[in-house]
Amino acid sequence: MWIFQVAMALFAVFMLYVLRIHFKKQHLSSMEYGLWVLIWLGFIMLSLSPSLLQGVADVLHIGRVFDLLIVFAFLILTVVSITTRLSVLASQQKLAELTRLLALQSARLEIERNHAATTRSSKKR
Questions:
Q1: Which of 24, 46, 23, 44 is nearest to 34 (CA)?
Q2: Mean pLDDT, 10 residues at a time, over the chain (125 residues)?
Q3: Residue 64 and residue 101: Cα distance in Å, rounded?
Q4: DSSP, res 28
Q5: Which residue, 11, 23, 72, 104, is the most exposed by fewest CB within 10 angstroms?
Q6: How far, in Å, CA of 51 to CA of 46, rounded?
Q7: Inter-CA distances, 37 with 14, 22, 30, 84, 86, Å
Q8: How far apart are the C-alpha atoms of 84 and 75, rounded to whole Å?
Q9: Distances from the Cα of 18 to the Cαs of 12, 13, 28, in angstroms?
């Protein structure tokens, strides 16, 4: 069991490293970075000492702490999945609006060029 616990702690340390890289590249805000750091530090603490949650598991009548962690993981994954989906939909709408605006602007420029070319050709006659 201790090998699994150490592996999970090392995974969390790796994720902290990845977070630090993205924070340095300014892909994450300070608040978001801090929240993720707290989550991964909590993950390290719980992976090395899962007995900390035994009281919570007992109150919820869940037999093992691991079962409780699985339930929490599914809840978190559900929230992250829905949030990601909503974010993707918002990005798609913004991209569609931007594409429409650029197409209209391009069409207006083309009309102005054609009008200017027609005006020049009629003045030469």
A1: 23
A2: 85 94 93 93 88 84 81 86 93 97 94 86 70
A3: 56
A4: S
A5: 104
A6: 8
A7: 11, 12, 10, 20, 24
A8: 14
A9: 10, 9, 11
